[in-house]
Amino acid sequence: MYLLSTLQVHTDRAVIKKRKSSFSSHLAQSRRRMEVASLRRRLCEEEGQNRKGEAKKIKEEEEEVMEESEAQRILRKLRKSQAAYVRERMRRGECWVPTQKIPR
After folding, report:
1. Helix, strand and coil in the chain, % to nearest 5
2. CA-to-CA separations, 65 to 79, 81, 96, in angstroms, rounded
3. 53 φ, ψ to 5°?
4. CA atoms of 44 and 68, how far apart (whole Å)
5. Which of 25, 53, 60, 68 allows an S-S link to 72, with CB 3.0 to 4.6 Å?
């Protein structure tokens, strides 16, 4: 059996204020993300119109990829993943390592 006195009917003002600020920051972030996505989409469309000749080059490269052997394919993918790893390491920077023991 539930007691009515133990149920919370109203929300505290501090909780409401926190929820409002969280929602407003979430809304602002989502709007920024949508603007960036639409800008990228427009840029890609403009580049697509400017790069009709490059589309043929890409098709030729894809045909070359289809003709390569299994060992060449593995090496190509290895180089691609190594380059991605190096890019990510450069983006993150050096890891922080403590110079002395740190107490818990």
Report:
1. 75, 0, 25
2. 14, 17, 41
3. -70, -30
4. 30
5. 68
The encoded tokens of residue 30 equal 């989502």
DSSP collapsed to 3 states, 32-78:
HHHHHHHHHHHHHHHHHHHCHHHHHHHHHHHHHHHHCCHHHHHHHHH
pLDDT truncated to tens, each residue of the chain (104 aa)? 455 555 566 778 888 888 888 888 888 888 888 888 888 888 877 776 666 666 677 677 667 666 777 888 899 899 999 999 999 988 888 888 888 888 87
Question: Residue ranges per domain, the chain?
Answer: 14-50, 58-92
pTM of the model: 0.36
Residue at token pair 């505290």: 12
